[in-house]
């Protein structure tokens, strides 16, 4: 307890020692282009910053308070001088964000008036001020008003300029984002971390069991191992991002890119397994040589790794060269790991995932139809045995597909309906349970348990069988001796 208190004290001292300004970093602007007068006042665009309201910085902070090293520059507490208005756009994208200089606001007497945001009455803050935000929708019955002090009135609640941002100034089409309550976001982060801590060990155990049992290292088992491995890496990266929130920009971008890659890596391995069971149902179960199995696995690897890699490289290039408007860019490293815009997440994440899920559904339906057709035609023992293997694999793949499909379906629903906060907790629950459920489906079935006992407890089983046989032989000898007597 004492050590934790000392650490917190040191961290607080470091944070407060960064700057002596009487405001938060997100309430400052770059005033380097100004000049200092004889009274040590800093003049920037006819705005006067008294001594103590400006300072030199060699970093900037994003909405998650992550410090990013930059060249030394002067920043001033702009909201100490006048009222502030915050817009969501970045500093280099004001043309698309500030489409109009006029904004309708309400004064203290609840009278509506039109102000010009470019005049000297207001200071403009750019960029989001918090990590997670949700969009207000008038169509859903939400009504809000902009107040002339730079605040937002929503359902009798007043939000200051650090709790919301505006994407457009056209009042009829204004897009407003509001920050989630900080305590609620902290609670979600705790749930995520606990869920990842639960899932990762079960995924690792599943991988190790399949890797250690020769009978499970067939083509089916190798695909399953690749799937659990990719999911383990994905969860580990998300856990890292959840715990170490204050990552440097370069480290955060690299982590975000790897997360993007591993998401699709896991989905494409599920797609491979769906295709594999469909191919078996269509062509029948045939004895494959080891060389043929290895060749097929290599082809699967090229597909399952190659396409996600190509998608990731394409997204990185689009993001790096700013080929589109910022709301259509993936913006890796933002909003935990990706752009908060629905359009960007739909293009780079949810639409591709939806396409994969639809393809998997079609493969499963055709596989189920084929199994039902073949069921009535199989009569001999070997065919029945082969059909049983097919059905068992189909059952495993189907359950795995349902697990991933259900999780991402809930994720999509909770993203679209962001104001229904309970949906986030339902999604978090599925994230928490997924690794454990995969363990139950893939390891706790009867065949895998039997192979596990045979692999690791074979000597004990043999000894028990030998002892039982010896006791039986001894009893038989006693009976024969008694008969002779």
From TrEMBL:
* Residues annotated as signal peptide: 1-19
Q: How does it sit in the membrane?
A: Multi-pass membrane protein
Q: Enumerate the UniProt keywords alphabetically.
A: Cell membrane, G-protein coupled receptor, Membrane, Receptor, Signal, Transducer, Transmembrane, Transmembrane helix
Q: Which GO terms describe its molecular function?
A: G protein-coupled peptide receptor activity
Locate the transmembrane regions by residue number.
190-211, 223-241, 253-275, 296-318, 347-365, 396-416, 422-444
Which InterPro entries has this protein been placed in? GPCR_2-like_7TM (IPR017981), GPCR_2_secretin-like (IPR000832), Methusela_ecto_dom_1 (IPR044860), Methusela_ecto_dom_2 (IPR023311), Methuselah_N_dom (IPR010596), Methuselah_N_sf (IPR036272), Mth_GPCR (IPR051384)
Protein family (similarity comment): Belongs to the G-protein coupled receptor 2 family. Mth subfamily.
Task: Report what the protein is called.
Answer: G-protein coupled receptors family 2 profile 2 domain-containing protein
């Amino acid at each position: 307890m004492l050590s934790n208190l000392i650490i917190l004290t040191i961290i607080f001292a470091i944070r407060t020692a960064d700057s002596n300004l009487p405001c938060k970093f997100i309430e400052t602007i770059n005033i380097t282009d100004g000049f200092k007068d004889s009274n040590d006042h800093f003049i920037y665009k006819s705005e006067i910053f008294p001594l103590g309201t400006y300072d030199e910085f060699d970093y900037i902070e994003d909405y998650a308070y992550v410090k990013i090293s930059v060249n030394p520059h002067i920043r001033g507490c702009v909201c100490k001088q006048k009222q502030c208005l915050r817009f969501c756009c970045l500093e280099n994208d004001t043309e698309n964000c500030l489409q109009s200089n006029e904004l309708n606001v309400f004064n203290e007497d609840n009278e509506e008036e039109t102000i010009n945001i470019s005049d000297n009455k207001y200071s403009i803050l750019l960029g989001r001020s918090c990590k997670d935000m949700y969009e207000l929708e008038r169509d859903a019955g939400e009504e809000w008003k902009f107040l002339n002090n730079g605040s937002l009135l929503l359902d009798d609640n007043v939000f200051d300029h650090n709790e919301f941002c505006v994407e457009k100034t056209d009042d009829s089409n204004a897009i407003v984002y509001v920050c989630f309550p900080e305590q609620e976001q902290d609670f979600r982060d705790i749930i995520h971390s606990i869920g990842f801590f639960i899932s990762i060990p079960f995924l690792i155990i599943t991988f190790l069991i399949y890797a250690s049992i020769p009978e499970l290292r067939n083509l089916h088992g190798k695909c399953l191992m690749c799937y659990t491995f990719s999911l383990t890496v994905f969860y580990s990266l998300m856990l890292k991002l959840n715990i170490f929130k204050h990552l440097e920009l370069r480290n955060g971008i690299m982590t975000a890119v790897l997360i993007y890659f591993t998401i699709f890596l896991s989905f494409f391995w599920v797609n491979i397994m769906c295709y594999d069971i469909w191919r078996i149902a269509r062509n029948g179960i045939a004895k494959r040589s080891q060389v043929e199995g290895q060749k097929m696995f290599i082809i699967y690897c090229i597909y399952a790794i190659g396409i996600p890699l190509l998608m990731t490289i394409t997204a990185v290039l689009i993001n790096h060269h700013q080929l589109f408007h910022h709301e259509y860019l993936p913006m890796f490293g933002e909003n935990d790991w990706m752009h908060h815009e629905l359009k960007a997440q739909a293009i780079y994440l949810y639409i591709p995932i939806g396409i994969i899920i639809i393809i998997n559904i079609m493969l499963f339906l055709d596989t189920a139809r084929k199994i039902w057709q073949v069921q009535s035609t199989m009569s001999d023992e070997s065919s029945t045995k082969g059909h049983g293997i097919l059905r068992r694999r189909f059952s495993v793949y189907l359950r795995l597909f349902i697990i991933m499909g259900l999780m991402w379906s809930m994720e999509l629903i909770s993203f679209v309906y962001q104001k229904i906060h309970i949906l986030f907790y339902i999604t978090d629950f599925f994230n928490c349970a997924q690794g454990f459920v995969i363990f139950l489906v893939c390891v706790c079935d009867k065949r895998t348990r039997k192979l596990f006992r045979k692999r690791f407890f074979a000597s004990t089983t043999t000894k028990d069988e030998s002892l039982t046989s010896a006791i039986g032989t001894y009893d038989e000898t006693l009976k024969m001796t008694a008969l002779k007597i």
